[in-house]
Amino acid sequence: MRKGQQTRRDIIRKAAPIFNQKGFEGAALSDLMEATGLEKGGIYRHFKSKEQLAAEAFDYAWETAVDCRLEGTAEIANTVDRLQQVVRNFRERRNGLVAGGCPLLNTAIDTDDGNPRLRARARCALDAWLLLLRDILEEGKARGEVRPEADVWQISTLIVSGLEGSLMLSRLQKDSDALDVVVQHLESYLETQVRARKPASEEQRA
Amino acid sequence: MRKGQQTRRDIIRKAAPIFNQKGFEGAALSDLMEATGLEKGGIYRHFKSKEQLAAEAFDYAWETAVDCRLEGTAEIANTVDRLQQVVRNFRERRNGLVAGGCPLLNTAIDTDDGNPRLRARARCALDAWLLLLRDILEEGKARGEVRPEADVWQISTLIVSGLEGSLMLSRLQKDSDALDVVVQHLESYLETQVRARKPASEEQRA
């Protein structure tokens, strides 16, 4: 039983880059067999279908991405500083990702006219990613670090749209220029439009 | 000969939504036969390979997208107003697109770890799209409508990243909320950070 679970996890981990790079349709059984070193029966003893394996591979790739993006942020006390680090991590900590780029972007595009089960996973991942940013913003409001009038829904949408869009450009252009531009824009947006203004008295002391 | 060219164009037009929705690997011969009403031989009499058909289908879908995004903009004299209309068109004129969303976003993600010929087409499309925006900005600078210090490369990158990223969100969420947020942000960014400031004397007269 324990060995079976270990094999199952290994298959997911090895299948994840195949699905993330080639998409659901593009990932051939031969690719999965080569990556895992198993025969068809050895793979599908552990999964009901290619769809189930793809869904679990997506979850694994997505958890890895979220871990990279949150790395070193929990210990940042100020919520706006923390958001700025999340934005920087999106650009800087891409080496830890499963090969093939952002699993959310890939799976969203791959499945938006297709596979509804995989699409539902991507939708959940997007909602959770937006909610995570919104929670930091709400915490910031409660602590007086984020402007009370800031629209947390709009800000989280701007951050995710900008980052995911610029990642598409950067991957196509094979350099990080677009990511650099958008990360810088978002950092400055958070600084000038989201961070609570200091009271005038403090401003003078600073 | 003339009839052959007409058939060729028909095949491209009918294959374009298949490739745009299903991707290169996902587009099966059976899908292409059903869409065109032709047998395999009838399709491949006109194209050397699936790759060639996909490349021409991409070009067709992309031209359609660019036409939608530029609709009604040529007659707008002020360059910043024109850019704002291009941004609004991205959200509002999506009905004219080949089914399946933005062909650039789809093809970039579909091919960034795959098909190099199709990837090269997507790369050309992106470069042309960025250049088109940059040309409007440069024209704006020459006419004193855009701030002289504006970085046209950065601005065009911000626009394309934001629009393409928010389209991913909107398609996954099946509503236009994310597009609305980003279009509004970009319009306001163009207004407050890109449009040349009026001289103080004019500001007072206004």
Which labels suit this protein?
Tetracycline Repressor, domain 2, 75% helix, 0% strand, 206 residues, mainly alpha, 10 helices, elongated, homodimer
At a glance:
Chain A has 206 residues and is mainly alpha-helical.
Kindly give the count of domains of chain A.
Answer: 1
CATH topology description of chain A: Tetracycline Repressor, domain 2
Q: Multimeric state of these chains?
A: homodimer
CATH architecture of chain A: Orthogonal Bundle
- Main interface by residue count: A-B, 42 and 41 residues
* Radius of gyration computed on alpha carbons of chain A: 20 Å
Strand count, sense and closure of the main sheet of chain A?
none
Q: Which segments of chain A are poorly predicted (pLDDT under 50) over 5 or more consecutive residues?
A: none
Helix/strand class of chain A: mainly alpha
Give the strand content of chain A. under 5%
Amino- and carboxy-terminal Cα gap of chain A: 62 Å
Note the total helix count of chain A: 10
Determine and state the CATH class of chain A: Mainly Alpha
**CATH homologous superfamily descriptor of chain A:** Tetracycline Repressor, domain 2
Q: Would you write up a description of this structure?
A:
The structure is a homodimer of 206-residue chains. Chain A has a single domain (50-197), classed as Tetracycline Repressor, domain 2 (Orthogonal Bundle). The termini of chain A are far apart. In chain A, helix 5 (79-92) runs antiparallel to helix 7 (116-142), helix 5 runs antiparallel to helix 9 and helix 7 packs across helix 8 (152-173). Chain A has 10 helices and no strands. With 206 residues, chain A is mainly alpha-helical. The longest helix of chain A has 27 residues, at 116-142. The relative contact order of chain A is 0.10. Chain A is elongated. The interface between A and B is large, with 42 and 41 residues.
